[in-house]
Amino acid sequence: MTQKKGGIMAKTFMPKQRTPGELLAFQLEGLKWTVNHAYNGSPFYRKKFEDAGVSPDSIRSLDDLRRLPFTTADDLRKGYPFPLLSVPLEDVVRIHASSGTTGKKKVLAYTARDIDDWAHFFARCYEMAGMTTSDKVQICVGYGLWTAGVGFQLGCERFGAMAIPMGPGNLDMQCEFLVDFKTTVVCCTASWASFSLRRWRRGGSGTGSI
């Protein structure tokens, strides 16, 4: 899918593979790379793989995926604050984390390549949803340590649409921006969408102004 914005053709973010065989070959190449990267870059994963009888050389088909050991939330907690890294710490350019409601926060580390890939895949999600570069995207999820807000925004900007980084809450302002900016796409949790719809149906946020 391509769209025009200001006379410029926007690129597609969909995979290049066009046949099942091409896709399977690409997936196998990625699996081999991932296992090799984790095995050689992370003492934690090397031990995990060795305990499971797996090495990079033993990955020969996608069926070998079932031989790989699971990584658990507890593994992430035990490795706090920088768990399970497969790259040098100086290559980490950003972290995100869970809320920490069940103990220490579960931290995930990102390299510049991770963030670039993330923006690309998020843009693909927008494309698959049928969005165009003329859309105005009101992002009503949390920013900060939670991954959601910045992910929605990076993907939107990579896609080429207009991002309106509202964050969660503040229903009066959300409704004001929906009307004033003529928002065409809203990104939010299901619970926030349900709550907002109930309030709008009752005549707004309780102030009578919406």
Question: In terms of quaternary structure, what is this?
Answer: single chain
Query: Order of SSEs, N→C?
Result: EEHHHEEHEHEHEH
Instruction: Count helical runs.
Output: 7
Tell me the helix content.
40-55%
Strand order of the largest sheet: 6-5-7
- Main sheet properties: 3 strands, parallel
Notes on the structure:
By secondary structure, the protein is of the alpha/beta class. The protein has 3 domains: 55 residues; 39 residues, no CATH class; 88 residues, Rossmann fold (3-Layer(aba) Sandwich). Helices cover 42% and strands 11% of the residues. It has 7 helices and 7 strands; from the N terminus they run ββαααββαβαβαβα. It has a 3-stranded parallel sheet, with helices on both faces. The protein has a two-stranded antiparallel ribbon with strand order 1-2. Strands 3-4 form a two-stranded antiparallel ribbon. Helix 5 links the parallel strand 5 and strand 6. Helix 1 crosses helix 2 and helix 4 crosses helix 5.
Topology:
Blueprint: E1 4-5, E2 8-9, H1 20-41, H2 43-51, H3 73-78, E3 94-97, E4 107-110, H4 112-128, E5 136-139, H5 148-159, E6 162-165, H6 171-180, E7 185-187, H7 190-201
